[in-house]
Amino acid sequence: MTRTNALDRYLRIADRFGEVVAGVRDWDAPTPVKEWRARDVVDHLATWFPAMLGAGTSIRLAPGRRVRRNPVGAWEDLDREVRVLLTDRDLAATTHTDPNTGSKPVEQVVDQYFTTDVFMHTWDLARSSGQDGRMDPDFLAALDAGMRRSAATIRASGHYGQEQPVPEDADLQDRFIAFIGRDPRWTA
């Protein structure tokens, strides 16, 4: 994985998420994650990633706007901070250390965990708000293959729901959504 690829992937995935965020009209709408409302999707990203980053490095992201008051602004602030991380060579190369994931450069942590999470939650927010939930097929294929190779670890993490049933002829997106514990037929 090269630095440019990590940055390019993030920009592509984050830009799409930003489009979906901008299209949300009801931030209290339910989502495919039963416990969450639309605003909770943004809150999850704006909360866990800065905490994860700070727990494994000396890097602290600037506090952004509050999700409860301004979910769009909160996403924009977080996105801007992550873009700085990936474009600043020193920050991107900073070693992040975590007892569960080991030591790796921040750009790899963003690429492997944050970009992936933004990608998956784009579908959640799109479905919640009645927007187009189609996922990038190339990124999806690579992510699906990688996650299935690590299925036991993923399930043990507690971060994903129980795999949902899908018809045998389900397409890759529906199979992936079911794999991460969502019902691909879910609608608001």
UniProtKB/TrEMBL annotation:
<keyword id="KW-0670">Pyruvate</keyword>
<dbReference type="GO" id="GO:0016853">
    <property type="term" value="F:isomerase activity"/>
</dbReference>
<feature type="domain" description="Mycothiol-dependent maleylpyruvate isomerase metal-binding">
    <location>
        <begin position="12"/>
        <end position="126"/>
    </location>
</feature>
<protein>
    <submittedName>
        <fullName>Maleylpyruvate isomerase family mycothiol-dependent enzyme</fullName>
    </submittedName>
</protein>
<dbReference type="InterPro" id="IPR024344">
    <property type="entry name" value="MDMPI_metal-binding"/>
</dbReference>
<keyword id="KW-0413">Isomerase</keyword>
<dbReference type="Pfam" id="PF11716">
    <property type="entry name" value="MDMPI_N"/>
</dbReference>
<dbReference type="GO" id="GO:0046872">
    <property type="term" value="F:metal ion binding"/>
</dbReference>
<dbReference type="InterPro" id="IPR017517">
    <property type="entry name" value="Maleyloyr_isom"/>
</dbReference>
<dbReference type="InterPro" id="IPR034660">
    <property type="entry name" value="DinB/YfiT-like"/>
</dbReference>
